[in-house]
DNA sequence: CGCGTTCTTGACTGCTTTCAAAGATGGTGG
DNA sequence: CCACCATCTTTGAAAGCAGTCAAGAACGCG
């Protein structure tokens, strides 16, 4: 079992999907087998192109990718990030076209998403996929509220708490730390701000002891105050989902 | 066959679902039968509450509803509108909890969503549901880009074009007109603005001949310029979907 | 006709953007 | 091992879009 570039000590994919639904030993093995057939997508390369057919449903094994909408005049909005363990290109209808462009923000490793093998109601893997899809929607809703109603500092606080939880689900975060392998410009593109303003706001948050940053890692120095600032509360999507908090 | 309050001359549900996938005569009949068992939800009443279990998947027959996120301090963001023909509470995993609160913006009529009867790959109704779900995601993506990167005037232009297309799909719009049975405050809540600013921006758009407003109806007076303003392009989700434009 | 909701208007504030340029930082080849 | 270049971060000053607060006008409903 060769190690994977960038992050991912064990397997983010197995960790995350197991957290979403109980998987059989056989299902875990299927995922690990898929990982043998992984491929690499270099930083800044496109993974999916809006309007093009989706070839191969995949799992992101390591790295960060982003769904993006680009405007003609150069403006850019990142709709959501894809983190290790996230699914990509899964569709419930036939002849799906990618709804958005997806690009690799860092170097990424992808693997084919194993087929759930029949029964959609019972299979652990099928359940994990379904829950994953519900979670994705949930984060889209949060992203909308974030962009629509929160100030710059609130957006950053909210996004950090959310991203920390997402990383934790894939086994990639410690209690108060998570990796943030992106530039402030990319961060600005997801938060609907300019990189200049993100920079200034991050400085304020550091000076007021909310966060610490070093080595592309965020430390949530005062989670309480961060959560109060953004009115943050943990996710609840499915009654059956394994709780992580 | 009794007529339904508010809007909906024929059946928005049949119109929209038929546009999403080819339905058999039997399937249309199933929808019309469901409509006999409809119920009314009064303006401002809640239809779904975030975190509560989803009881009954439904179709909206008439009226407008809204997914909403409320902040403790009173701020409010509408995540998306539900228009006649839209599905509500459809979930692919078991024990689903409502991801967001949904409330009736106007008086609404809802009906139980008929069961697709078995085969998920072939049934026209199942296909329509799947496509509907993909479309919902597509509009969430657009909402994110709208809030993140567009100015007030661009947001309004983009939202109007989108909403016109959505109404048209359910047979509720003529070439350049669509109903907008909501106050400017509600409009502000979906666009991430204040009602004061929406008011001023609408005035500018009227004065510059982009739109006309009367009797809770929007007329797209200059669709070309509106589309250019917002970099608007029509939707493409599934290669198999019936095109409406 | 009266009242509550919705729309409109004005003045002022302020958060965020814009534009530019100066530091850091990191990777690469000589 | 260090110079060099590209990328990323930081800083400053000025402008602008949107928000806030308040009050008056218009509208719709009973």
Number of helices of chain A: 7
Radius of gyration of CA atoms of chain A, rounded to a whole number: 18 Å
Major sheet summary line of chain A? 4 strands, antiparallel
Tell me what portion of residues of chain A adopts beta-strand conformation: 15-25%
Largest interface, Cβ cutoff 8 Å: A-B, 47 and 47 residues
Which structural category fits the helices and strands of chain A?
A: alpha+beta
Describe what this molecule looks like in 3D.
2 copies of one chain form a homodimer. In chain A, helix 1 crosses helix 3 and helix 4 crosses helix 7. Chain A has 245 residues and is an alpha+beta fold. Chain A is built from 7 helices and 11 strands. Chain A is 38% helix and 19% strand. The first copy, chain A, has helices at 12-20, 25-36, 124-149, 152-169, 184-191, 195-207, 223-230; strands spanning 39-41, 46-48, 58-62, 65-70, 76-82, 87-88, 101-104, 108-112, 177-179, 211-214, 217-220. In chain A, the strands form 3 sheets. Chain A has a 4-stranded antiparallel sheet with strand order 1-8-3-6. In chain A, strands 2-7-4-5 form a 4-stranded antiparallel sheet. The longest helix of chain A has 26 residues, at 124-149. At the A-B interface, strand 5 and helix 3 of A face strand 5 and helix 3 of B.
Brief sketch in words of this structure:
Two copies of one chain form a homodimer. The first copy, chain A, is an alpha+beta fold and 245 residues long. Chain A has helices spanning 12-20, 25-36, 124-149, 152-169, 184-191, 195-207, 223-230, and strands at residues 39-41, 46-48, 58-62, 65-70, 76-82, 87-88, 101-104, 108-112, 177-179, 211-214, 217-220.
């Amino acid at each position: 079992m060769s190690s994977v570039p960038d992050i991912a000590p064990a397997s983010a994919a197995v960790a995350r999907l197991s957290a979403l639904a109980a998987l059989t030993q056989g299902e875990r093995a299927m995922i690990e087998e898929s990982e043998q057939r992984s491929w690499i997508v270099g930083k800044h390369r496109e993974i999916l192109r809006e309007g093009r057919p989706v070839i191969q449903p995949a799992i992101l094994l390591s790295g960060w990718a982003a769904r993006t909408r680009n405007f003609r005049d150069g403006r850019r909005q990142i709709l959501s990030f894809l983190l290790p363990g996230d699914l990509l290109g899964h569709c419930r209808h036939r002849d799906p076209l990618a709804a958005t462009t997806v690009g690799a923000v860092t170097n990424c490793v992808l693997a084919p998403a194993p087929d759930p093998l029949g029964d959609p109601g019972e299979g652990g893997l099928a359940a994990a996929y379904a829950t994953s899809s519900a979670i994705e929607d949930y984060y889209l809703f949060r992203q909308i509220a974030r962009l629509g109603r929160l100030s710059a500092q609130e957006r950053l606080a909210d996004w950090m708490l959310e991203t920390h939880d997402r990383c934790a689900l894939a086994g990639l975060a410690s209690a108060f730390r998570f990796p943030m392998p992106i530039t402030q410009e990319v961060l600005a593109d997801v938060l609907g701000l300019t990189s200049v303003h993100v920079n200034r706001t991050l400085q304020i948050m550091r000076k007021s002891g909310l966060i610490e940053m070093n080595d592309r890692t965020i430390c949530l120095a005062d989670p309480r105050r961060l959560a109060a600032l953004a009115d943050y509360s943990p996710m609840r999507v499915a009654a059956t989902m394994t709780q992580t908090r």
